[in-house]
Design brief:
Elements (H helix, E strand, L loop, with lengths): L3 H8 L5 H12 L3 H11 L2 H25 L10 H19 L2 H9 L1 E6 L6 H9 L17 E7 L2 E7 L9 H16 L2 E7 L6 H9 L5 E6 L9 H6 L5 E3 L8 H16 L11 H23 L3 H19 L5 H8 L7
Parallel strand pairs: 1-3, 1-4, 4-5, 5-6
Antiparallel strand pairs: 2-3
Length: 347
């Protein structure tokens, strides 16, 4: 049965549910960085944070329930303002964990790096150079690539999904037009963009349209065909924004190593992922954390409005249960079956 031994370890209390999921990440790790992160998760990196958060909420809940059980006793209960401040601090810690969801997805699935540009600037040639193999068809005919091509590579210990897209231009060809639409969608979904330009040709409206599309994206400007005389003026270069410009010749294999180094810098420099990805979450964790955050928000609102403590207690219990789902303190068979079905037999 898939996941039989890991599930048995979870049911016997040797590991919690987040650690069991880390076993899957460990098996599927594509690079040293994702392996390191999965190992830290297996050793309880996330578990410790969740236990600390649950303990903090439980302390506040104990105060609230004491005020319910002993309303007439002259006990020194926590003041409402202090209770709200403590809950705010817990909420901030949860928000920080939620922010690691993108990094978790990147370490599991790879950085989505989209090669974008108008037709015939050398996008497919660059893909082939990055892969060190002839994966994409390269011709002098603009519009050869009409659909995206995706391949994984390992750059500096980071899994990168390189996506070669159709050239972005105005076209009446319905098939090519669909490819252009997909390219735009790929740019929207990208973690970073390699915006390619042909240095042997003057910049066109299509080039400036690309700059608009990547305005809010981490990106590198890749100036291709530097083996040919440049036709781009210094004024036009200034218009290419303040982003890092990497000059290459995909045909002559000039500057490709420098481009790889710049990709790593962009990824690890905080633009795509942080330098410390020791604890990351998956989509299941993210959903539970969001619901916990919502329950805490309701609890703080109730305290602020002077609502009965019974209402506050309900929301604090809700937050505790949501966090409990992450480590398996609160769960059901459907969730367990879904998680352990991802394992191969014998794990």
């Amino acid at each position: 049965e898939p996941g039989e031994f890991t599930k048995r370890a979870f049911l016997n209390g040797r590991i919690d549910l987040s650690q069991a999921e880390a076993v899957i990440d460990l098996i599927r790790a594509k690079t040293d960085l994702s392996l390191k992160t999965a190992t830290n998760m297996l050793l309880g990196g996330l578990s410790k944070k969740i236990r600390k958060l649950r303990s903090s909420i439980a302390q506040i809940l104990a105060e609230v329930e004491a005020s319910i059980d002993f309303p007439d006793e002259e006990l020194d209960f926590m003041p409402p303002d202090e209770m709200i401040e403590r809950l705010k601090a817990i909420a901030e810690e949860i928000k920080k964990l939620i922010e690691t969801a993108k990094e978790g997805r990147i370490l599991r699935e790879g950085v989505r790096a989209v090669i974008a540009g108008k037709p015939n600037v050398g996008k497919s040639s660059l893909l082939n150079r990055l892969l060190s193999e002839e994966r994409a068809i390269v011709t002098d005919i603009p519009g050869t690539t009409r659909d995206s091509i995706e391949e994984y590579i390992n750059i500096g210990g980071i899994p990168v999904k390189i996506i070669d897209t159709a050239g972005i231009r105005l076209t009446a060809d319905p098939v090519e037009l669909e490819g252009v639409k997909r390219s735009r969608r790929m740019i929207e979904m990208a973690d970073l963009v390699l915006a390619m330009f042909d240095s042997s040709q003057k910049l066109t409206e299509e080039d400036f349209e690309l700059l608009k599309l990547i305005s809010d994206k981490p990106a590198l400007i890749v100036m291709n065909k530097i083996d040919l005389p440049s036709q781009i003026s210094s004024e036009d270069l200034a218009k290419l924004s303040s982003r890092r410009i990497v000059r290459i010749s995909a045909l002559k294999e000039i500057g490709v190593d420098e481009l790889k180094a710049e990709i790593v810098k962009l990824i690890t420099g905080g633009k795509v992922i942080s330098s410390d990805s020791s604890v990351t979450i998956n989509l299941r964790h993210k959903d539970a954390l969001r619901r916990a955050l919502e329950s805490l928000s309701y609890a703080m609102d109730s305290i602020d409005r002077g609502e009965p403590p019974e209402l506050v207690a309900v929301d604090l219990h809700g937050a505790l249960n949501c966090l409990g789902e992450i480590v398996g303190a609160v769960t059901n068979e459907e969730i367990l079956d879904r998680i352990f079905s991802q394992f191969c037999i014998g794990k």
